């Protein structure tokens, strides 16, 4: 077991190293100059040279990378060029929790609504219920989150004034306030995911419900809900968990647009703005954070398999 | 050099301003009343602050350090935290410069200004705002380390002398007509006074911890989220400020900001993209403030390389652009036609007859074709026109409108959409044939003409060179007589428009949006959002 975990951790670190090299290089290759943007209309050749030297951008790229890496692992993420803000505070303490909250709420909503709908579809296969949930799922996938967010804002925020249309309240400070502010953004972000879960649950459950052990359970006289939820759903958890891990990237991608529409000060907006302003330090920090998150979640998924499926537990 | 009595000019200026205060109009009138109400309060009475104003800040804010910012969006916040020696005022007719931290501003001779400061003004950190502080601030801009991007504005400042703890004398090496604007205007604030103690304490982080004398104190800035200010109860203007708290909420998506305004979660917007103007004006909850400001938009041509090194081709382009159509299609009517760079708010210098007088550039397809026939290259000419989504309030609409107009004179413009960082880089390095751009918030012809088009200047993107133009601008800088300055600037403009490194397009309206229950806002056509007199009903 120790070897298994050590191997996974080593893999994770190696992946993160590759990510850091790739993103660092790509950023340097992108045309555009952070200093010209930072100086704006006050640009002059002299000011440009001063700032280049001050930020160390006149040194060779390899040297810049090594310096950056050494500082990064020690928790010194640098300061941003224009705002002169501490990147660690900005990215890790302020922005990341917002995106994590949004992602957790969206994921929770997707599972809470998606799984029951998928089960309903599977149990009532080929009925109006099934068709209805299929239509819902297709709409969810097809609707761009940017547009959906604006529609939700105008209908539920402005027209009926039911939910706030902007801003972030930390749920760990004010749980209900946080929940209230998260309703529209989390729903916007979750639709794509929800639709996927509905279709996946349905497809796998339809198959599972035709298995001999289901027939056996029914023959034993177990109640219908128990047959479906305990024997059926339990057996489709594996593909569900796998897909949630793999699709986390899509969720984080969607967070960029959702955060923009609902003015949430999260990591998605942070990275977008930083890319546009060529704030290398922030982009780098953002990429490392999201990559780490992605890798960790997939590590957790790997480690969860043996728990979900006794057959995968290492034999003694 | 002509002899001018500057004290007389100043006295007249101040008198005119005082005289006109009784006949204020419209929105400025209510604002004036609010200010007058403040003045009537008994001396020493504390203002009762109440209300929390939430402002959607739609444009990028780089730093709250007035001496280092390059963005008007930052000035909008900075101006509520700091004061300058002078301030910009507007009475509905003309933009003026009035003493702010100074009680009096005297011109001793044409090179010497004496400022007598208000007594007892304190910075938010409790240190006094005295002559020492003024000197320290001005020196920070002029020769501080790191170099302020606004240092050039005080280049002609020779000496700063402290006559007594509340009096400073500034002596310039030549008469400096641009002085009030240099101190107060453009995208930075060279004459804004910052707390020397705070500068000492925070160093380069001052921009995240600004300490001024203004009506609001800085509280916090969460990156990409919000900037919080609270009332300064010891503010020196009696009865001000009226608000207790102000939050600038950083919002990247204007349509979300409009929704938040309609939902009552936001009370103001620092800007309003033209496509949202009809929605704002139709809604009773929101009011639109704004007018044509000191700015101009143009299509630039790269004079350093073919094909636009050919003056006849540039003249053809300048005459081929149908501004009327662009006003409708690109600006949705939120702009007026420009014939030359000097814009209407520069009241002493704007030429009201320019549309009819024949000065400047005009749309005339016949003439455009004549110029085109004189161009060296008579074949089909293909040029590159670079566009950026974020370059101004019109996005790519100007480029899209101009391209078919150029086709009529045998120029094929390849529109190339590139992202902002790359666009800036290529513009600065001269790697383009055409692009369109906006110069904004100018208050004086000097800053609207000279830095943009002087030979070898950093902002002279078309790379145009004219010794005569440079000479005229330099002369005008040191002449204080308005009549004479105007003549020089018209001559300079005429050369610029005739040689056409740019095709001038429009003077645009710059908007602010306030909720209907926001009262007492004093609009200043320099893209400012001064909240001193603002209150919530």
Explain what you see:
The complex is a heterodimer of chains A (about 325) and B (about 525). Chain A has 14 helices and no strands. Chain A has about 325 residues and is mainly alpha-helical. In chain A, helix 5 (about 85-125) packs across helix 8, helix 9 (about 210-220) runs antiparallel to helix 10 and helix 12 packs across helix 13 (about 265-275). Chain A is globular and about 85 Å long. The mean pLDDT of chain A is about 85. Chain B is about 30% helix and about 25% strand. In chain B, strands 1, 10, 11, 12, 13, 14, 15, 16, 17, 18, 19 and 20 form a 12-stranded mixed β-sheet that branches. Chain B has a 4-stranded antiparallel β-sheet with strand order 5-6-8-7. In chain B, strands 2-9 form a two-stranded antiparallel ribbon. Chain B has 2 domains: about 5-45 and about 80-205, Dipeptide-binding Protein, domain 1; about 295-510, Dipeptide-binding Protein, Domain 3 (Dipeptide-binding Protein, domain 3, Roll), CATH 3.10.105.10. Chain B contains 17 helices and 22 strands. Chain B has helices at about 5-20, 25-40, 70-80, 130-145, 180-185, 195-200, 255-260, 275-280, 310-320, 325-330, 355, 365-375, 395-405, 420-430, 445-455, 465-475, 480-500; strands at about 50-55, 85, 85-90, 95-100, 100-110, 110-115, 155-165, 165-170, 190-195, 215-220, 225-230, 245-250, 270, 285-290, 295-300, 335, 380-385, 410-415, 435-440, 500-515, 520, 535. Chain B has about 525 residues and is α+β, with helices and mostly antiparallel strands. Classes of the chains: A mainly alpha (about 325), B alpha+beta (about 525). Chains A and B meet through helix 2, helix 3, helix 5, helix 7 and helix 13 of A and helix 7 and helix 14 of B.
């Amino acid at each position: 077991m120790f070897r298994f975990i050590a191997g996974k951790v080593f893999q994770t670190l190696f992946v993160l190293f590759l990510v850091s090299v790739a993103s660092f290089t790509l950023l340097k290759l992108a045309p555009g100059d952070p200093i010209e943007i930072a100086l704006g209309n006050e640009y002059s050749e002299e000011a440009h040279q001063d700032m280049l030297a001050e930020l160390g951008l006149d040194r060779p790229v390899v040297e810049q990378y090594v310096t950056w890496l050494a500082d990064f692992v020690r928790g010194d993420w640098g300061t941003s060029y224009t705002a002169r803000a501490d990147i660690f505070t900005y990215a890790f303490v302020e922005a990341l929790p917002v995106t994590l909250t949004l992602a957790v709420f969206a994921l929770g909503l997707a599972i809470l609504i998606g799984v029951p709908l998928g089960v309903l579809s599977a149990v009532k296969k080929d009925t109006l219920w099934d068709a209805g949930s299929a239509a819902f799922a297709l709409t969810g996938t097809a609707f761009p989150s940017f547009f959906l967010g604006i529609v939700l804002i105008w209908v539920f925020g402005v027209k009926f004034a039911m939910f706030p249309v902007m801003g972030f309240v930390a749920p760990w400070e004010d749980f209900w306030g946080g929940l209230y502010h998260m309703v529209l953004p989390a729903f916007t972000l979750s639709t794509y995911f929800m639709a996927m879960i509905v279709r996946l649950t349905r497809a796998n459950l339809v198959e599972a419900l035709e298995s001999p052990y289901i027939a056996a359970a029914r023959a034993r006289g177990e109640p219908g809900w128990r047959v479906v939820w305990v024997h059926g759903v339990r057996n489709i958890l594996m593909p569900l968990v796998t897909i949630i891990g793999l699709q986390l990237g899509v969720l984080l991608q969607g967070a960029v647009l959702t955060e923009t529409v609902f003015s949430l000060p999260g990591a998605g907006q942070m990275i977008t703005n930083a890319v546009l302003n060529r704030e290398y330090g922030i982009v780098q920090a953002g990429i490392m954070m999201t990559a780490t998150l992605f890798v960790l979640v997939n590590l957790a998924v790997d480690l969860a398999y043996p728990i979900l499926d006794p057959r995968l537990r290492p034999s003694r | 050099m002509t002899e001018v009595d500057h004290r007389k000019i100043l006295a007249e200026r101040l008198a005119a301003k005082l005289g006109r205060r009784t006949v204020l109009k419209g929105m400025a009138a209510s604002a004036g009343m609010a200010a007058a109400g403040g003045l009537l309060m008994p001396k020493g009475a504390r203002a009762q602050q109440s209300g929390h104003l939430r402002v959607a800040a739609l444009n990028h804010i780089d730093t709250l350090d007035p001496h280092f910012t390059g963005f008007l969006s930052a000035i909008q916040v900075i101006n509520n935290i700091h004061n300058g020696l002078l301030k910009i005022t507007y009475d509905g007719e003309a933009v003026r410069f009035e003493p702010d931290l100074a009680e009096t501003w005297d011109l001793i001779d044409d090179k010497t200004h004496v400022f007598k400061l208000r007594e007892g003004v304190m910075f938010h950190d409790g240190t006094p705002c005295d002559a020492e502080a003024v000197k320290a601030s001005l020196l920070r801009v002029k020769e501080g380390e790191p170099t302020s991007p606004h240092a050039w504005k005080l280049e002609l400042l020779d000496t700063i002398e402290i006559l007594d703890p509340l009096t400073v004398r500034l002596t310039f090496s030549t008469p400096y007509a641009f002085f009030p604007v240099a101190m107060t205007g453009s995208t930075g604030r060279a004459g804004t006074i910052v707390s020397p103690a705070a500068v000492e304490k925070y160093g380069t982080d001052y921009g995240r911890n600004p300490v001024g004398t203004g009506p609001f104190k800085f509280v916090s800035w969460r990156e990409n989220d919000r900037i919080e200010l609270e009332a300064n109860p010891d503010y020196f203007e009696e009865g001000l400020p009226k608000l207790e708290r102000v939050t600038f909420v950083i919002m990247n998506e204007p349509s979300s900001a409009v929704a938040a305004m309609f939902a009552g979660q936001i009370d103001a917007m620092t800007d309003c993209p033209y496509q949202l103007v009809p929605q704002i004006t139709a809604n009773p909850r929101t009011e639109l403030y704004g007018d044509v400001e000191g700015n101009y938009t143009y299509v630039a041509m790269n004079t350093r390389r073919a094909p636009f090194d050919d003056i006849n081709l540039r003249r053809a382009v300048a005459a081929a652009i149908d501004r009327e159509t662009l006003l409708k299609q690109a600006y949705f009517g939120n702009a007026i036609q420009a014939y030359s760079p000097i814009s209407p708010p520069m009241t002493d210098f704007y030429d009201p007859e320019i549309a009819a007088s024949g000065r400047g550039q005009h749309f005339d397809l016949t003439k455009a074709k004549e110029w085109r026939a004189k161009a060296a290259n008579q074949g089909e000419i293909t040029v590159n026109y670079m566009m950026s989504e974020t370059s101004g309030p019109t996005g790519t609409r100007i480029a899209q409108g101009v391209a078919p107009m150029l086709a009529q004179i045998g120029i094929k413009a390849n529109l190339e959409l590139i992202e902002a960082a790359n666009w800036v880089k290529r513009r600065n390095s001269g790697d383009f044939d055409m692009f369109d751009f906006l110069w904004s918030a100018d208050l004086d012809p000097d800053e609207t003409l000279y830095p943009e088009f002087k030979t070898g200047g950093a902002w002279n993107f078309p790379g145009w060179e004219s010794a005569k133009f440079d000479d005229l601008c330099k002369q005008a800088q040191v002449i204080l007589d308005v009549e004479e300055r105007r003549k020089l600037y018209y001559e300079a403009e005429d050369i610029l428009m005739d040689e056409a490194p740019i095709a001038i397009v429009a003077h645009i309206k710059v908007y602010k949006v306030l909720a209907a229950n926001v009262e007492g806002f004093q609009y200043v056509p320099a893209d400012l959002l001064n909240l001193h007199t603002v209150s919530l009903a």
